[in-house]
Amino acid sequence: MVRAAVLPAVGAPLEIADIDLPDPGPGQVRVRLAAAGVCHSDLSLTNGTMRVPVPAVLGHEGAGTVTAVGEGVTEVAPGDDVVLNWAPSCGSCHACGLGEVWLCANALNGSADVYARTADGTDLHPGLNVAAFAEETVVRASCVLPLPDGVPLADAALLGCAVLTGYGAVHHSARVRPGETVAVFGVGGVGLATLQAARIARASTIVAVDVSPEKEELARAAGATEFVLASELTAREIRALTGKQGVDVAVECVGRAVAIRTAWESTRRGGRTTVVGIGGKDQEVTFNALELFHWGRTLSGCVYGNSNPAQDLPVLADHVRAGRLDLSALVTERIALDGIPAAFENMLAGKGGRALVVF
After folding, report:
1. H/E run at residue 23
2. Which of 148, 146, 149, 189 is nearest to 169 (CA)?
3. pTM as predicted
4. CB-CB neighbours of 74 under 10 Å
5. Peptide bond into 55 cis (omega under 30)
6. Over the stretch 58-86, which tens digit does the pLDDT of each residue have?
7. 226-229 β-sheet, strand order
8. Suppose 254 and one of 72, 161, 206, 277 were both cysteines; which one would form an S-S bond, judging by CB atoms 3.0 to 4.6 Å apart?
9. Which of 326, 329, 357 minimizes the C-alpha distance to 343?
């Protein structure tokens, strides 16, 4: 039996419980978690903004050590340190055929699996494939990636979502070039990773935007050269910081209509607005035909940073080893399993960066 944070139903509070985790079957891997990040997507699963089969063990950003492998697994072995990959590509769908593995049609099929049971025999599903809010988990072999040398195991959990997403938004989706100006809306875990990525890309002016003035110190430590408190005047302030032009690239990490619209209005004519944040269906953003023509901006969604985790993880590890990427700077709180509900409340209140469950 292992301890886990179980979501019994959508809208219900998490329950810390002992679960019965079986030995890995063919093509499966058992992992002892070192750490798991608490992501806004986990909160979105609890309230129904995103849907997965329930009851489930949530958590999709994690790293740990392989303790056992099932028949046919050759990619990893017991004792290997790994990063969990919550969205493994199938390699055979239309998107994978185009090389757009982040849009794989079958990436989340594993969420429908029954991977464990509660003490009373209730079936449990692995939320977003990997069920990282537990001391140990059993996943498909495609859901683990070997951790490159030189990256602290607990901090490596952040590579599984926040860093891949933020780095990819800058380098794959927006394709920020040296000397360009960037604005990042939302200074949570993903926003902090995005700010660091903009610095790595050698952006000139990097503007962080958040509703909380307490986020300024975090933002500047991550690479922001300017900080703007979110308001009705945000777009005007950002244009004033960029010669009245607006930024070359705006990255929205909040998932709210007003933030997306403000990011768009903060982008220069001909610039790029990238939306990373996951919003609900009620968050509708409107544009008129004339402004679309006149401003010539590009508005694009960004899924998982448009990343290929297997290819990007070694690149990120190189940045970590070289000191260009500071994973620990994303973490503002290290907690136990029973601290996850409070971490959710902090996210709703706009407090802190990433909370990290440390086992």
Report:
1. none
2. 189
3. 0.96
4. 7
5. yes
6. 999 999 999 999 999 999 999 999 999 99
7. 226-229, 206-210, 182-185, 247-252, 267-275, 298-301
8. 277
9. 357
